[in-house]
Amino acid sequence: VAIDTSGSVSNDDLREFISEIHHIWKTGTEVTVVECDAQIGRVYEYKGSIDDSKQVTGRGGTDMNPFIEYFNDHREFNSLIILTDGYIGENTVKTFKPMMMVICSNGEDIETVKENGWGHTIKISLAS
Question: Could you report the per-residue pLDDT of 105-125, keeping only the tens digit for each?
Fold first, then answer.
């Protein structure tokens, strides 16, 4: 699971991302988390929580293509989920395996993300 840690992602967005990761992990899925803004930051196994004493890396510009390059270089992964606010620019690197974009509840419009070549995209919907 890739987490967009660029400057446009709010702390509330990050909480949504962590909640999604936790729910994926609860299904019994092994989850590797990769933090990235315009470059790869921390990479770690998710084991039920994220150490609150560590700040997410990045908080700068945005380029999601390094996620895909990392994913393509690490063939042991089955699929890639990118958690983002959707303000990510154009996809210039193609993935070898399934990829899905998950946009935070207050993020960019799904159609705009798809028009930029990001493929299968869903948006988090918060219950009221």
Answer: 999 999 988 888 888 999 998
Sheet holding 2-4, edge to edge: 40-46, 31-36, 2-4, 80-84, 99-103, 121-123
**pTM attached to this predicted model:** 0.91
Nearest to 37 by CA among 69, 84, 77: 84
Question: Measured between alpha carbons, how far is 27 from 25 in angstroms, rounded to an integer?
Answer: 5
| Dist CA 60 CA 47 (whole Å) | 27
Under DSSP, the state recorded for 37 is S
Are 4 and 36 in contact, with CB atoms under 8 Å apart? Answer: yes
How confident is the model over 5-26, as pLDDT tens digits?
999 999 999 999 999 999 999 9
